[in-house]
Structure formats: structure tokens, C-alpha cells
Sequence to fold (448 residues):
Amino acid sequence: MNDLNPTLQPVFDEILARNPGENEFHQATRELLDSLAPVVARHPEYTDAAIIRRVCEPERQIIFRVPWVDDAGQVQLNRGFRVEFNSALGPYKGGLRFHPSVYLGIVKFLGFEQIFKNALTGMPIGGGKGGSDFDPKGRSDAEVMRFCQSFMTELYRHIGEYTDVPAGDIGVGGREIGYLFGQYKRITNRYESGVLTGKGLGWGGSLVRTEATGYGTVYFAQEILRARGQSLEGRTVIVSGSGNVAIYAAQKATALGATVVACSDSGGYVVDEKGLDLELLKDVKEVRRERLTAYADARESAHHVAGGSVWDVPCDIALPCATQNELDKSHALALVRNGCTVVAEGANMPCTPDAVQVFAKAGVAFAPGKAANAGGVATSALEMQQNASRDSWSFAHTEQRLEEIMIGIHARCLETADAYGSPGNYVDGANIAGFVQVADAMLALGVI
Ligand code: NDP
Ligand code: 2IT
Fold:
């Protein structure tokens, strides 16, 4: 790791001292600070107003008990979180993650990334994130419902259309948003559609929200290729994960002429040289909620590898869409060795800093999650727009808006990287463009 400059090092030291043990939060803040040296040099007013120190401190952090009763009648206990990180640009906005690994450091890293991602979308949304260490795997629908109801029984008092608007993330999809919205409505006696996004299409949801993150990531990859005079046609792609983001990234990549030859889950990966059968994958993961072994069992051209690394499969384009730090230095070296030239993050912070360095040295185009996966939250903001105007837009119109937003983010990253002296660097471009927008709003709003 390089040293930070003398203005930024004390800021990072303070983050380490104030947030002990929160490794993912340290990683995410450090990664932003690494891009900001030319910004503090050009904008002393940010340092004078302690903007960087303030943006690294959440406005509010809520931690609460979530008791619930399982199907056997046993009382279960989980911990709930909502970190309301920054509201300079709009109400706090960001997903909820239900996964046993969730603790404050993960929620804070995700909330921090969300601030700058949301700024990059150009929509009026601040940054926040929440979740619980609840593990939905193996739980019945009734158990998930009771958990969601208990979670919302505390969360409802902190959220609202103009305050804080949660959505999905790992372990939280349409089913969970339904139960959460039902309980919010029941407690408040208000049909406040704009309080949550990712709602069902029959009750206030937006077309394209389900597909948006994966589609957006592929639109971003397409822009990277276009800038190099190339396209997705005939390319070999790998996605990691096999959840919401991975499935729809694979779908859009396939529609644009690529062959998606592998995907993964926490048990291993499947290789399917004929290209993933997306209807089968959706049936296994979205309907039956089974493991990827069930995909390999049902498809002759596919085989399953237990454990191992999906990044050993040769590809032109890699789309990590599972979770943080899933792609490390050795994985990056394997990708480079096999001829991969583009990596776009569908997940949040899936590549370790070492892996990102490997890509930079090898000339692999690398798009960070806060730019490449912003299509999900951008479409959440489109859902909020539709709710506010009591309207619903067609699939084609909403998808066109999404594509325009992704093209715009790509252009803004490149222009900003140019303007601040690191041409072609999407990491610096995304960090600086997102940060400057939030910093200017914070300056205008005074010391709050
Ligand atoms: P899902 O819960 O739908 O899918 C997650 C996938 O990742 C599953 O295949 C899961 O496998 C795998 N996974 C999760 N944790 C691990 C782990 N520790 N090790 C290995 N595999 C793991 O989540 P999403 O698709 O919604 O989210 C994926 C990523 O995209 C996350 O980083 C999320 O923050 C990010 N993201 C999501 C957005 C959205 O709109 N949903 C928007 C922007 C970013 P298994 O089932 O075996 O656990
Ligand atoms: O990481 C993310 O951007 C999300 N999980 C989506 C957030 C949202 O509010 O749609």
C-alpha cells in the first residue's frame, strides 16, 4: 500500500482509531482516500471544512434486537442494523443484507460505498445500508416472514419516503421486501409506496428493477469495450455468484452476443461451455432456491466443481457478482494469464486491493462497483419517481433510462479521471466524481 499524502494520512489514522476491527470499512475508506490526493490539492476548502473527516463518519447508526419464533416454536435472536451514512444529496438510500456474516463493519463499508455510487447516478439520493446476521438459507417462508416482521417492527420508526428508503441486497429480494412492506404498512397505517424499493410489480414496484443491477453492469462493460472499439459479440464471460445480480448480468451479456460459460455459489461453480441456460438457472435459484449442483444435474453440457475458484475458468470478461473480497491477487493473476481484458464489478468491493493492482499492471480495464453496479440503485430511484407521480413506466422506457444512466456514469468516470490526471482510470474517476458532488453539497449545507 502506498503512503497517503500528509493531508489524508491523519484522516485515515482517525478512521482506524475510531472504528476498530471494522476491516471492510477500513478497506473501503482507504480505497477512496487513495484517489483523493489531487482533489485536496485543488480544493483546500474541503479540508478547511473537514469534509473528508465528516463524510467518513455516519450521520446515524442504528443497532437493534430482532427476536422471532421459528417453526419449531423456539425463540431465535438476531441483530439488526441501519447505518444512515450521508443525506447531503437526498434521503438515505441503500439495500438491506441478510447474511450470517453481517456485522457493523460490513454495513458501514456498504453504506460508505453507497454514498458515492448514488452520487454518480445523478439522482437525488443519499447513502445508507442495513441488514442483519439472519441467515435465510433453509428457512421456511413463514420463518422469513416472521423475521421480516420483527425486523420492521423496529426499523419502521427510522425510515420513510423522505428520510430513508431501504431495498434489497444479498439475501433480500422480492419475497423479503413484500413482508417488510406489509409490516410497515400495518404499523403506520399508510400506503407509503416510496418507503421501500424493489417492490412487486403488482403493488408499486418498477419494471426493470429486478434486472437492473446485472443489466447495468453489462451496459458498463459494453461502454468499456466500445471505448476500445470492441463489443461483447462473441466474447466469453464469467459471472460469479448466481443470485440476482449474477443471473441478470448473464442474461444481458448473452443477449448482447456473449457466451457466459460459468457462474458460482458458496458451494462451488458450474462450467457450461454451451453457455448458461438462464431459464434453468432461474428455476434452480429463484424458484426452487437450490444449490448449483441441481443445475449441473439437469444439464448435460455442464459440470459442477465443488469448492475451487471460478476465476480459473478462461474468459475474456469477468463480472464478479457475489460478495466482497471474493477475487484476490491469485485469482487476478489467473484471469490475466488466461487472457481476460475487462473486469466490471457487479458486487460491492469483490476485488481485493491487490487484485486491482494486478489488473492495473496488466492493462486490464477495471470498473469498480460504485460505478459498474450503480444501475440497481439508479432504477430504485426511478421506482421512487414512479411512486411519487403515481405512475408506472413501460419496460422499454425504464430500460432505456437505465442504459442512458450507465452510459452517463461511464463517460463521467473517464472525464473526471482525465481532469484529475489519471486518464483511463475508472477507480479514480468514480471516486473523485462521486466525492466532489457530495462534498460540494455538504459545503453548501453548512456544518451539520
Ligand atoms: P443474492 O443474495 O441474490 O445472491 C448472492 C450470490 O452470491 C449467491 O449466489 C451467493 O451464494 C453468493 N455469495 C454470497 N455470499 C457469498 C460468500 N461469502 N461466498 C461465496 N458466495 C457468496 O445477492 P445479490 O445478487 O443481490 O448481490 C450480490 C452482490 O451484488 C452483493 O455484493 C451486493 O451487495 C451487490 N449489489 C446488489 C444489488 C442489488 O440490487 N441486489 C445492487 C448493487 C450491488 P450462496 O447462495 O451459496 O450464498
Ligand atoms: O448495493 C446496492 O446498490 C444495492 N444493494 C441496491 C440499493 C438500492 O437502494 O436499490
In short: The chain has 18 helices and twelve strands.
